[in-house]
Write a structure and sequence with these properties.
Shape: globular
Number of domains: 1
Order of helices and strands: HEHHEHH
Largest sheet: 2 strands, parallel
Oligomer: single chain
Radius of gyration: 14 Å
Strand order of the largest sheet: 1-2
Number of strands: 2
Helix content: 55-70%
Amino acid sequence: MAARKTIADSARAYVSAATVREIAIKIALGRLEFRGKIAEQLALNNLLSLAVTVPHALAAGALPTHHSDPFDRLLVAQPTVKSLT
């Protein structure tokens, strides 16, 4: 619940393109129910898109090995590179 409060209290909140990809994959595999269009829901909730960039990929590759999932590595690297919470 602390994450929800942080997002709600923030002037800007970002959603990684990697997160959107994971959501789309889970929907396609039938592992997640989602009504409507993802992009529309992001906009309705004032969530900004955070693209995956080369610096993000390089930072993800440099993380310690305890982050083994490539998506998780990217999700850790992006806010670090962008100085986001």
